[in-house]
Amino acid sequence: MYEWIKALHVIAVISWMAGMLYLPRLFVYHCEAEVGSKQSETFKVMERRLLKAIINPAMMVTWLAGIYLVWSGHWLFTSWWIYGKLFLVLVLSGVHGLFVRWVKDFAADRNHLSQRFYRIINEIPTILMIGIVILVIVKPF
Predict the structure, then answer these.
(1) By the number of CB atoms within 10 A of the CB, which of 62, 63, 76, 140 ranks highest?
(2) Per the structure, how many domains does the chain have?
(3) Which domain holds residue 55?
(4) Domain contains 86
(5) pLDDT by residue for the chain (141 residues), tens digit each?
């Protein structure tokens, strides 16, 4: 059962990361759209659907499967790398929370952040992902 849950975890992580990398790119393009325009309304639908249909469920499955793997694999008190990974996943979850807030801001036409801001934010999930993968594969401590 452990290997099946691990496969599910990896699939969920890939789905979560795909959404976390794409959503800020939508924000960049949404900034260019005039408020109330057809293009702006289309971005609102795309952002909402991406968040509700892919990003949120993928994050939940990632967390649930990850908790199972840590518990059943006895990683919690035997390996220190897991604490680094857990910290980075918590930060990624916080970034996810910010994305939720920004989707709501765009939906209400309250976005006050720039394209440049979203271009920079777009790199944060990538940096976190790199750290997480290194911790999981290399297990440096």
Answers:
(1) 62
(2) 1
(3) 2-80+94-122
(4) no
(5) 999 999 999 999 999 999 999 999 999 999 999 999 999 999 999 999 999 999 999 999 999 999 999 999 988 888 899 999 999 999 999 999 999 999 999 999 999 999 999 999 999 999 999 999 999 999 998
